[in-house]
Amino acid sequence: MPYGIMINCTAVLIGGLLGAFLKDYFPDKLKESLPGIFGLSAITMGVTLIIRLESLSAVILAIIIGTVIGELLNLETNLMHGLHGLESRLPLSLNDGQLDVLISMIILFCFSGTGIFGAMNSAMTGDHSVLIAKAIMDFFTAVIFGTTAGYLVGFVAVPQFLVGILLFAGASYILPFVTETMLSNFKACGGIITLAVGLKIADIKRSRVLNILPSLVLVFPFSLFL
What is the average pLDDT score of the chain? Predict the structure, then answer.
């Protein structure tokens, strides 16, 4: 059962609604300080996953080749353009600031490296800890952005659930062909992506994290042959 996905989506829904309800009472200093803490938390998650690797050469090669593919395909840029293209089709009366926040939330909650890795890891290992930790951070993130964009932030949980379930189902079909070494390297690869997410959230090093995601697929054959 995709318990991690359900917990994560529920946290976003409740957090967004709560933020919109408390927007007149939420202190500005919390809005400024919490994102840095979220970044440090993601960095910690990444480090704990990286130390589980079995084959350093397979993981590094997957990260490098995967990033090259992602950059050549412009995954993150194309996703941004696609979401901005939906703006005119949305039957919503939002100002530019609210739309920008909403698009940022869709990317952060639905297509983040941690979320994609967490859903796949949950299906293949039964370990929901990554998604549960992400749910805690997403809850407070949704609260913060709910104070800006209103109740709509909470309903980002709907596309987030659909994306998570698709990843969960797809990863379940891969599981019978995966060895313990592959799983360990997959977790380490996801840890590197989570570390990059943390550095970006903490505003330490900004990188196009979505362009690294092909490495999560490449790490399986590289682990097998190397």
Answer: 82
